[in-house]
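TEACHING EXERCISE
Course module: macromolecular assemblies
Task: Read the component lines below, then compare them to the predicted structure of the full complex.
Student: A.B.
Group: 4
Components provided:
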Amino acid sequence: MADLFKKMISGFFVMLMRFFQIKYWIFLGMIWIMSDSITSNLVTFCETTSEKTTPAVYAFIQSSPLFFSLYLLGVLCLFSDVPFCGRDQLYLLLREGRKKWYWRQVRYLFFGSFAAMLTAVSVCLVQLRAWLKVTAQWDRVLGTLAYTDAGRGFEMRFGVPGRVLAHYSPGETFWQAILIGLGVTFFLSVFLFTVSLCVSRKAAMAAASAMVLMCSLHKYYPTWMNFASPVSWIRTTALGMVYMDHAPGLSWVAAALPIVILFCVGIGYAAILKKDFNWTEEQ
Amino acid sequence: MFFKKHYLKMDLYRAFFSWKCPLCILTVALCFYWGGKSNTVSYIPEGVLEMLSKAFFGGMTWLALVPCVFVYGDCLCEDYERKFFRTAIQRGNSKAYLNSKFVCCFLSAYTTMCLGFLLSCFFAGLFQPFFTSEYTYDCLCQTLFGSLLRDGNGVLYEIAIGLLYSLQAGILAVASMALSMWYPNRLLVYAMPVFLFYVIDALTGRLPPPFQVLYIFNAMEGSRLGSPLLSVGWALLVTLLFSCALYFMMYQKIRKWIENG
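Instructor-supplied answer key:
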């Protein structure tokens, strides 16, 4: 039992060491700059009105095209070394076998997605720290932004749909955003890994970038395509809203997201058993 | 000789005749267009001038810095990774090698930003009028190149803005390339202009107007020194000063590279 625990701890530290490298710090810097440019107007608004807002404001920030597109592009950079066939991974794969190695990579992807999501949430909340208060009811700041055109005057870079305020509590909105955001991030990373195993790294990056860009430029193509890709489900404040044509409901997304993730993991598992690694090319 | 022909020829070829160049120009155009158009709350601008105003004042222009450095900012990383710089310097000299890299990096970023910016204006101009709001037009007439607008030279106005603003992209790309000599990591090189932009903005944003380093390149703002000629001259001087400082740093580092083999 003690050995197992030791193994788990050492495995976790290996994962930490693998994840927190220069790429992560660049990701953190970019997220910081981007969220600063988004939240600065909200801070000005809070200063002007001397009112505080709830942490649930993160859900609205996450749904803004600037935030989620740059966040997801950052996630692509974090996992740009898929299918992890460089350097020491070759020896690990040979030593522990393909199946074990594959599940280790899936665990790493989940951990990476979790860390990325946690980073995004923390950075936003840290930047708004002076203007946050935890309440069960929606605050005046978000109410004003939703029901008046104050946001226009302050050049807000995110929208606050009144229907979200009417349908959900701040807690529900916050956790929905985090859980679905985590799911979408994990989906994107697993998708990258699977496509890189089945086709190539370039194809994986191209397909994932196309999905992210399509999601960001959703205003410029037919509405029925807006939510076709699972990546677009990260716009949680648009899900299940009547004014958004073809927007899937939250329960539908909550059911479909694990299914598409499992589908990608399954395909990747089948691919790893058959893949003929060309090590020199991969490195 | 300041330049060796074969260095310059090779670097120009690598910078401008690769798939990166057209892709980055398109990306810069997309960044400006998107920056000027997308906002979930504010009104959707309908004219080219409104779009430009929104792109610059909305603070989205930093996004366009990444593709500019992507074109050729990582050239020293490439040379360092493959140890190509040793052979290259042995065939000529370190000064000419550095001059060529410096000029090509600056030119590639400058051209990418300028062409991308003009492309976004061109596309916007195809589908929408030059301006729809008299208020925006009147405000922009008071800016650095406002006299061109008043004389009805809208296209020249856009070109002037693009030419001045691209200086910033050029100098930030060279700064990223310089930093890549200390830490040769490509992802860091691509992200560095944004970090520098943020840091410089934070450091100089509260200084008197002529010393707000990033704003002197932004012609959508008012004239920083009274007359347009002085403002443009000041921007060029700042570019030159930064270039000299960066060149000196890079030259010292490349000498160490050679000494250490």
